[in-house]
């Protein structure tokens, strides 16, 4: 048996699993950094990588390894109450806990000997171990007449509104436009459990995004960001 060891770690604003988009292209503005490690952290290994606009990332669902897996799962796309086989799903609880995402390649930088790959379209929690990178090859990887089964149509985003206090916290940042766009895209996926989709709800939810505790609720108009508080 060949042991797998990570080639790098990804740094993202998603500090916990909750509220991460369910596929990479759903929050396209969020910018992340992959830092290569060990023998893989060499300029030679990324030579000519920048020719490609998109990459495949293979990674470990490291936060789920302990939990193991079951042969059937309930995909959120089916409302969370119908079962399909684990291999007929993108469930994060699977044998070998390997995930794959097609991501956008923004840049490759070398900073004091550290190879940094800047990426957009990422659906990974901060600190996820990356086990491989491959260029996305459109002529082969993109199949325009493929059918998408129960995940044929993309999820429909909801409206996101920010309270005045939340807006004023955002405005304190020089990159507030980026952060406003990022939070809007993330929360427009309505991160609440699948069975609550489309239903107003009296609960206030909290999620750790960037260095903030972001609190939001859901009503008939969509998602309302109640407040944004720095985490110590
Ligand atoms: N595109 C990938 C992942 C889809 S699931 C694939 O198809 O294989 C995306 C979900 O993975 C996110 O919503 C988040 O809840 C979960 N996730 C992200 N990073 C994780 C990690 N390190 N461990 C466990 N789950 C993770």
UniProtKB/TrEMBL annotation:
In terms of InterPro entries, this protein maps to: TrmO-like_N, TrmO_C, UPF0066_cons_site, YaeB-like, YaeB-like_sf, YaeB_N_sf
Q: Does the keyword Transit peptide apply?
A: no
One GO MF term: tRNA (L-threonylcarbamoyladenosine(37)-C2) methyltransferase activity
- Alphabetic keyword roster: Methyltransferase, S-adenosyl-L-methionine, Transferase
An example GO BP is: methylation
The domain of life is: Bacteria
* Residues of the TsaA-like domain: 4-145
The cross-references to NCBIfam families, in alphabetical order and at most eight, read: tRNA_TsaA
Q: Which family is annotated?
A: Belongs to the tRNA methyltransferase O family.
Q: Would you tell me the protein name for this molecule?
A: tRNA (N6-threonylcarbamoyladenosine(37)-N6)-methyltransferase TrmO
